[in-house]
Structures are given as structure tokens and as C-alpha cells.
């Protein structure tokens, strides 16, 4: 398993650094968003608690999928319309991509109740995980960055009840022997 191998490598890097009085790894960079949860929620929590490694996560909006821009297909101005992003276009237009868009529509009432946008909900959802040290935002313009930073004000509203509502809609909460999430 690749993810298990990464975890073993990180533990080994930590041990070697300690053995030679070096600074050990302090974080693992991992993709993490509403549709990509396994590594951050199942594989890394042991390391969060065992050696204090945190996750520096990326793609909280799933390459823009959660932003709403692909709700009605792939606009010509979007990244997924570029030839080098054909993989993203294929993913968006796939059956799984259509299911994801449907789930995002189901999440909109939660975002509305919290007084935020869907991207703000998604970023706050990532930040609420105790193992996440930081969330790397990829913004194309200042307006997107400002919107995404608004997630900070949503974070206190991410109660266990809200997280459970999101989990129920997504239906993709990974199984873990111990649930470290709040």
C-alpha cells in the first residue's frame, strides 16, 4: 500500500533525524478535501498523536470542483478546459463527477445556514480537523483568496452536528479504528 509506505517512511525519517540530532519532519503534505479523505483521516492520525506530525493540506476545493464553476460542465475559461488538464475534465464529466456535483448541491443549504459560501464551508471543514496544521489555498485572483479566507469566520460554526450532516451527505467518511476527528 502506497499510503502505508508513506507513513512508514515518515516514521523512519523521524527516527533517523532524532538519532542524528537533526530536526525531524514536522508535517506531511497531503491532498485533502470533501472528496479526498483517506490519507488525512485514516493514515496520518497515528503520526499526529505519536510523533506530533501535522498535515499541510492542499486542494481544499478539489481543483476547483467545489467552487461551483463546474456545476454546468466545463467553461472555456476554466483550468479543466486546458489540454494539459484533460484528466480533470474527464473526472468532472464522469459519473463520479456528476455525483459529486449533486452532493455539493445538497451541501448548499448547510452553507446557507452558516452564512457562508460552499468554498468557505469546504475550507473550514478541512481546517476543523485536529491533524491539519494548515490548508494551502490556490486562488486565481484576489477575490477568490478573500472569499476562501472567510472560512476562518465559519470555523467556530463547524460543530460536530454540522460535521455529521456533511458526512451524511457525502457518504464517504473513511473507516478508522480510532476516530481522531472532532
TrEMBL record:
It is found in: Cytoplasm. Its main location: cytoplasm. Keywords: Cytoplasm, Ion transport, NADP, Oxidoreductase, Potassium, Potassium transport, Transport. Residues 21-167 form the NADP-dependent oxidoreductase domain. It comes from the Eukaryota. Transmembrane segments: none annotated. Belongs to the shaker potassium channel beta subunit family. PANTHER family: HYPERKINETIC, ISOFORM M, VOLTAGE-GATED POTASSIUM CHANNEL SUBUNIT BETA-1. This is NADP-dependent oxidoreductase domain-containing protein. It comes from Ranitomeya imitator (mimic poison frog).
Amino acid at each position: 500500500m502506497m499510503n502505508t509506505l508513506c507513513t512508514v517512511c515518515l516514521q523512519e525519517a523521524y527516527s533517523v533525524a532524532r538519532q542524528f540530532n537533526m530536526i525531524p519532519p514536522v508535517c506531511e503534505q497531503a491532498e485533502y478535501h470533501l472528496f479526498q479523505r483517506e490519507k488525512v483521516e485514516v493514515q496520518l492520525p497515528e503520526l499526529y498523536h505519536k510523533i506530533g506530525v501535522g498535515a499541510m493540506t492542499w486542494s481544499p476545493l478539489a481543483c476547483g470542483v467545489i467552487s461551483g464553476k463546474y456545476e454546468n460542465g466545463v467553461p472555456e475559461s476554466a483550468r479543466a478546459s486546458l489540454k494539459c488538464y484533460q484528466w480533470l475534465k474527464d473526472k468532472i464529466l464522469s459519473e463520479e463527477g456528476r455525483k459529486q456535483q449533486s452532493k455539493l448541491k445538497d451541501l448548499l443549504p448547510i452553507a446557507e445556514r452558516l452564512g457562508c459560501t460552499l468554498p468557505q464551508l469546504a475550507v473550514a471543514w478541512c481546517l476543523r480537523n485536529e491533524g491539519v496544521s494548515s490548508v494551502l489555498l490556490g486562488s486565481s485572483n484576489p477575490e477568490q483568496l478573500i472569499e476562501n479566507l472567510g472560512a476562518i469566520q465559519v470555523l467556530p460554526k463547524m460543530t460536530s452536528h454540522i460535521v455529521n450532516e456533511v458526512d451524511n451527505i457525502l457518504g464517504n467518511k473513511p473507516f478508522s479504528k480510532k476516530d481522531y476527528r472532532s
